[in-house]
């Protein structure tokens, strides 16, 4: 309630201090769905004025272009599995699945240059629960055509390049951990779902508090590598890397497959508070360039 009051004070100023809202969202997170309904559209520069949204919806309906059959089929399959964690009245749950399928078909019909991927529905779930189908549409279209665009390419080539920054980023803060990761020969693909779904696939337990906290951070920063910084921060938590050292340097060290699973659990284990994920995330202004240098780019 105190944070909502602080947000309202900023929003009621003659000139809204977007930078201040960004700092709150990045450093502390927003405290409620209502705050997110007010602030996320500002970060994304999307107006949710009823008249404008209705006009856009009517235009989209009149000009609707269906996505490819392959895309529609995958959207349908994923929609059937969505909202499984919510113990809603079955007819309501079915209605929500139909709504998310309709929403995704609109997005990928309207935006023919982007590609659907499994895990996108997890992002849509968060937006639909906060904004509803109608208002979620322009927000998701904005995200998918801007700083999330690299995940909508025909292949994950750019995503893999981004993942290749993870271990050099780790090396800037914990060189022994970096060396141990290099020795195992494991790749950074254990972080794929965290990157493409902004942890929504991994933190999928209602009321989605952790996933929404990650979204606060990513949407406020609008940095394509933002989820990667959270992955790095979770791996750099003392409890996580000490346990990894104990396993790898013990009498029975983990093999390649086991190491992959250990690292996956390391970044998907839900902390007691979302701040444990974000409070010590690496300073991006330095780490981005330093990681590029480490990779020789």
Automatic annotation (TrEMBL):
<keyword id="KW-0343">GTPase activation</keyword>
<protein>
    <submittedName>
        <fullName>Putative TBC1 domain family member 20</fullName>
    </submittedName>
</protein>
<dbReference type="InterPro" id="IPR035969">
    <property type="entry name" value="Rab-GAP_TBC_sf"/>
</dbReference>
<dbReference type="GO" id="GO:0005096">
    <property type="term" value="F:GTPase activator activity"/>
</dbReference>
<dbReference type="InterPro" id="IPR045913">
    <property type="entry name" value="TBC20/Gyp8-like"/>
</dbReference>
<dbReference type="GO" id="GO:0006888">
    <property type="term" value="P:endoplasmic reticulum to Golgi vesicle-mediated transport"/>
</dbReference>
<dbReference type="InterPro" id="IPR000195">
    <property type="entry name" value="Rab-GAP-TBC_dom"/>
</dbReference>
<feature type="domain" description="Rab-GAP TBC">
    <location>
        <begin position="30"/>
        <end position="222"/>
    </location>
</feature>
<dbReference type="Pfam" id="PF00566">
    <property type="entry name" value="RabGAP-TBC"/>
</dbReference>
<dbReference type="GO" id="GO:0005789">
    <property type="term" value="C:endoplasmic reticulum membrane"/>
</dbReference>
């Amino acid at each position: 309630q105190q944070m909502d009051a602080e947000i309202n004070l900023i929003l009621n100023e003659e000139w809204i201090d977007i930078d201040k809202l960004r700092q709150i969202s990045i450093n502390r997170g927003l405290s409620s769905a209502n705050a997110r309904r007010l602030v996320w559209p500002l970060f994304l520069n999307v107006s949710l004025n009823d008249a404008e949204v209705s006009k856009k919806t009517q235009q989209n309906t009149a000009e609707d272009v269906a996505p490819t059959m392959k895309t529609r089929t995958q959207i349908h399959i994923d929609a059937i599995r969505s909202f499984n964690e919510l113990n809603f009245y079955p007819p309501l749950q079915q209605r929500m699945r139909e709504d998310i399928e309709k929403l995704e078909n609109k997005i990928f019909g309207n935006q023919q240059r982007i590609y659907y991927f499994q895990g996108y529905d997890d992002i849509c779930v968060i937006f639909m629960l906060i904004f509803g189908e109608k208002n979620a549409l322009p927000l998701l279209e904005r995200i998918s055509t801007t700083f999330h665009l690299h995940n909508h390419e025909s292949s994950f080539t750019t995503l893999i390049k981004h993942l290749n920054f993870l271990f050099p980023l780790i090396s800037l803060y914990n060189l022994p951990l970096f060396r141990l990761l290099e020795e195992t020969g494991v790749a950074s693909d254990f972080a794929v779902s965290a990157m493409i779904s902004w942890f929504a696939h991994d933190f999928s337990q209602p009321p989605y508090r952790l996933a929404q906290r990650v979204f606060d951070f990513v949407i406020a920063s609008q940095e394509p590598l933002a989820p990667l910084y959270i992955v790095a921060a979770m791996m750099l938590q003392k409890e996580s890397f000490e346990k990894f050292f104990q396993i790898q340097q013990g009498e029975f060290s983990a093999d390649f497959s086991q190491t992959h699973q250990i690292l996956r659990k390391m970044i998907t284990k839900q902390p007691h508070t979302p701040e444990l994920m974000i409070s010590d995330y690496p300073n991006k202004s330095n780490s981005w360039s330093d990681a590029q240098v480490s990779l020789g780019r």
